[in-house]
Amino acid sequence: MKSRFFLRKYASTLAITVAMAVLLPLQACAKELPAEEPAGIITMTTQASEVSFLVAGAKDVVIDWGDGKKSNVNDAYFFDEISEIFVFTYEYSEKIAHNIVITGNVTRLSCGLKLTALDVSRNPALKRLDCRGNQLTVLDVSKNTALEVLRCDQNQLTALDVSKNTALYRLECNFNQIKNLDVSKNTALNLLSVVGNQLTASALNDMFRTLPYDPKKDLNGGIYIQGNPGSQDCDRNIAWEKNWSFH
């Protein structure tokens, strides 16, 4: 009897040991699995009664128009299969401020909607941003480290920090109120256009000193500085010595 009891107890203990040996590694693996990456979020604020913008890179994009209605890719006004660009249009019944929220890992955004605010900080996948022709006084792109092209002309920006955008090769910030610009971290920069800002000769010289050496040759490359207070008196030799050309 004691022998049978011992055998049953031994078998039970062995089964528990084997189960634990199997479960513990599985639990460890489960803990090591990376969390699912959340979809990007972009928020835009506008008072325009009719809006139109394009996005690319996210086929599961969802638009919350800020008035209780939502749209997805099936509601897009236009879709380009080659570039995978979706164009969305919308008309509001009331001409008041609306917050438009775009959910999805968008890689390209073009939005000229008379925006008073634009938040792209929660969409790190963004590579191309065109927000020309708005009413922005602030533009934070510090979280968009993948950004390659930035066009923010015709806004009301007094400053622009692109120090985190090391992949940036095209920067156009024409017709703002920018007083200084540091591009020392933008080693891939090929085109820089700062036409119609508030850059003095001293500020332009400082900007030239931060330009990368020997930019990649491109027909559209170079630097544009017309319409700044110091465009005539600045020392262009600083940029020429780095192999930059003026247009």
Characterise this structure.
With 247 residues, the chain is of the alpha/beta class. It folds into three domains: 1-33; 39-104, no CATH class; 127-247, Ribonuclease Inhibitor (Leucine-rich repeat, LRR (right-handed beta-alpha superhelix)). Helix content is 18%, strand content 25%. It contains three helices and 14 strands. It has helices spanning 2-32, 201-210, 237-240, and strands spanning 41-46, 50-56, 62-64, 70-72, 78-80, 85-91, 98-103, 108-111, 115-122, 128-130, 149-151, 170-172, 191-193, 222-224. It has a nine-stranded mixed sheet, with no helix packed on it. The chain has a five-stranded antiparallel sheet with strand order 4-3-7-1-9, with no helix packed on it. The longest helix is centred in the first third of the chain and has 31 residues, at 2-32. The protein starts with a helix and ends in a 7-residue tail after the last helix. Residues 1-31 have low confidence and may be disordered.
Helix proportion: 10-25%
Report the CATH superfamily of the largest domain.
Ribonuclease Inhibitor
Number of helical segments with 4 or more residues: 3
The sequence of SSEs as H and E is HEEEEEEEEEEEEEHEH
Low-confidence stretches: 1-31
N-C termini distance = 101 Å
Topology at a glance:
Elements (H helix, E strand, L loop, with lengths): L1 H31 L8 E6 L3 E7 L5 E3 L5 E3 L5 E3 L4 E7 L6 E6 L4 E4 L3 E8 L5 E3 L18 E3 L18 E3 L18 E3 L7 H10 L11 E3 L12 H4 L7
Parallel strand pairs: 8-10, 10-11, 11-12, 12-13, 13-14
Antiparallel strand pairs: 1-7, 1-9, 2-6, 2-8, 3-4, 3-7, 5-6
Quick structural gist:
This protein is an alpha/beta fold and 247 residues long. It has helices at 2-32, 201-210, 237-240, and strands spanning 41-46, 50-56, 62-64, 70-72, 78-80, 85-91, 98-103, 108-111, 115-122, 128-130, 149-151, 170-172, 191-193, 222-224.
